[in-house]
């Protein structure tokens, strides 16, 4: 790998463009990138500098639209083949079956960790407090194996995992206090950010790798929901069938099946995303185009609700919590939409809809912030209010600058790339705020 940051940035941009050619699979992209790097290395040895070598190598790779069409012609049945659980590569499938074995082992390991936690602690609140620590290390372990990272990298990542474990289990939380729930929920956000470092193969500063992780997160959610729906149907049928013959299946379900299946499904879903990326990527643009206008309507309805509630002090606390959840949903939809967009495509109607979505979210965020500040002035600070206020401020900055960049893009002042870079470079702000809530909030609010 080159040590030239500018060259790496150029290769990342090239890779991002290739990823948007739907007919080219992830394995094909990896092979093309390796070939590109080899050509750059060969050309630099002849005396060309990195920029010249990159331009010449890309030219030799050919027109990507033509490459995409050629792949589509040669692999017209690829979509159906990708739906097969285990593909058949050139090595006879041994590598894929080995990976499947690793994935199933990690899935079972995550289930054992959760089950052991339930048996060891004997307290559901303690298990839920540590659920991220029990499951996400196995997901990180899969990417350590998948990306062939050294054991030193894996060991280095154990340090922040261990520190979070100490904070969550040594702090004298009030079992009925707010800081316990806040620390447990925000620790998952911090841990998810740590997994991104492993997912990126150590190249966590790369904008393209961060956007890959955004795309991975969205696709993981889709696969996990599909698995959960399928599993829910099977469990419901099993409960109904055994209930008719007088067998109580619920104890087995609660004690064994759920502790193993739920965390195991997350690991399996991650493997499916890695193995079948192009299948879901074809769905992503459809999902974003369906849910963006629906979300705009929902935000406008919420603004109408705010307008009819009277004073900001009269806004219900549960409604404010719901608003925060909606804003987070909008953020996820925005990120997933941007990750699925071709950055070289000209502005279109959907870009206008996205700007409307962001502006509507900004309006809801502004009203929510005003209501929160009014309640804080009237009733004083609390851990929940401070956490919600901080999240809304982080969201406000993110959405406001996204709107500004979108206006510039629609007016033709700059390309789409700045919008994409802003998303990836601002994401660490959420992980930073999550760490503040986990580490600093409990002692500040007396662990209550």
Could you explain the architecture of this structure?
InterPro entries: Perm_prefix_1. It comes from Promicromonospora iranensis. The chain crosses the membrane at residues 100-121, 127-145, 152-173, 179-200, 220-244, 256-274, 286-307, 319-340, 352-374, 386-407, 427-447. It is a single chain. The protein has 448 residues and is mainly α. The protein folds into three domains: 5-76; 102-277, no CATH class; 283-415, no CATH class. Helix content is 80%, strand content 0%. It is built from 18 helices and no strands. It has helices at 5-19, 26-45, 50-61, 64-74, 78-82, 94-121, 124-129, 131-146, 151-170, 178-199, 207-244, 250-275, 277-281, 284-308, 317-339, 349-379, 383-410, 417-444. Helix 9 (151-170) packs antiparallel against helix 10 (178-199). The radius of gyration is 24 Å and the shape is globular. It starts with a helix and ends with a helix.
**Terminal-residue CA separation:** 50 Å
Q: Number of helical runs?
A: 18
Q: Outline, from the CA principal axes?
A: globular
Q: Identify low-pLDDT runs.
A: 68-90
One letter per element, helices H and strands E, the order comes to: HHHHHHHHHHHHHHHHHH
How much beta, percentage-wise? under 5%
The mean pLDDT is 80
Please identify the structural class as seen in this structure. mainly alpha
Radius of gyration: 24 Å
InterPro entries: Perm_prefix_1
Protein name: DUF4153 domain-containing protein
Organism: Promicromonospora iranensis
Keywords: Membrane, Transmembrane, Transmembrane helix
């Amino acid at each position: 790998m080159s040590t030239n940051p500018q060259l790496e940035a150029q290769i990342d941009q090239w890779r991002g463009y290739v990823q948007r050619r739907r007919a080219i699979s992830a394995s094909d992209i990896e092979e093309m990138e390796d070939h590109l790097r080899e050509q750059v290395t060969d050309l630099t040895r002849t005396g060309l500098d990195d920029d010249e070598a990159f331009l010449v190598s890309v030219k030799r790779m050919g027109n990507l639209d033509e490459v995409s069409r050629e792949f589509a012609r040669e692999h017209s049945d690829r979509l159906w083949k990708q739906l097969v659980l285990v593909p058949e590569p050139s090595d006879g499938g041994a590598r894929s079956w080995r990976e499947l074995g690793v994935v199933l082992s990690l899935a079972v390991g995550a289930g054992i960790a959760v089950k052991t936690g339930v048996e060891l602690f004997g307290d559901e609140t303690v298990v839920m407090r540590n659920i991220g620590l029990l499951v996400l290390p196995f997901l990180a372990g899969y990417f350590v194996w998948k990306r062939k990272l050294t054991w030193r990298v894996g060991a280095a990542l154990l340090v922040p995992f261990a520190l979070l474990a100490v904070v969550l289990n040594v702090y004298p939380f009030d079992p009925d206090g707010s800081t316990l729930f806040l620390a447990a929920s925000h620790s998952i956000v911090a841990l998810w950010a740590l997994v991104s470092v492993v997912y990126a193969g150590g190249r966590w500063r790369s904008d393209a790798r961060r956007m890959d992780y955004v795309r991975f997160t969205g696709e993981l959610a889709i696969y996990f929901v599909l698995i959960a729906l399928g599993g829910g149907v099977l469990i419901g049928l099993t409960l109904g069938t055994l209930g008719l013959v007088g067998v109580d299946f619920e104890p087995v379900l609660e004690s064994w099946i759920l502790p193993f299946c739920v965390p195991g499904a997350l690991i399996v879903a991650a493997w499916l995303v890695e193995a079948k990326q192009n299948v879901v990527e074809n769905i992503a643009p459809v999902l974003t185009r369906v849910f963006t206008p629906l979300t705009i309507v929902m935000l406008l309805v919420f603004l109408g609700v705010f307008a009819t509630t009277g004073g900001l002090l009269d806004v219900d606390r549960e409604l404010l919590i719901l608003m925060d959840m909606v804003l987070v949903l909008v953020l996820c939809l925005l990120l997933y939409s941007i990750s699925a967009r071709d950055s070289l495509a000209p502005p279109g109607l959907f870009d206008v809809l996205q700007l409307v979505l962001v502006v509507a979210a900004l309006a809801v965020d502004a009203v929510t912030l005003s209501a929160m500040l009014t309640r804080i002035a009237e009733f004083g600070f609390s851990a929940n209010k401070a956490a919600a206020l901080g999240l809304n401020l982080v969201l406000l900055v993110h959405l406001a600058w996204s709107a500004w960049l979108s206006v510039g893009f629609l007016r033709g002042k700059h390309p789409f790339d700045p919008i994409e870079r802003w998303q990836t470079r601002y994401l660490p702000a959420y992980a930073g705020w999550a760490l503040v809530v986990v580490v600093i909030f409990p002692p500040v609010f007396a662990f209550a």
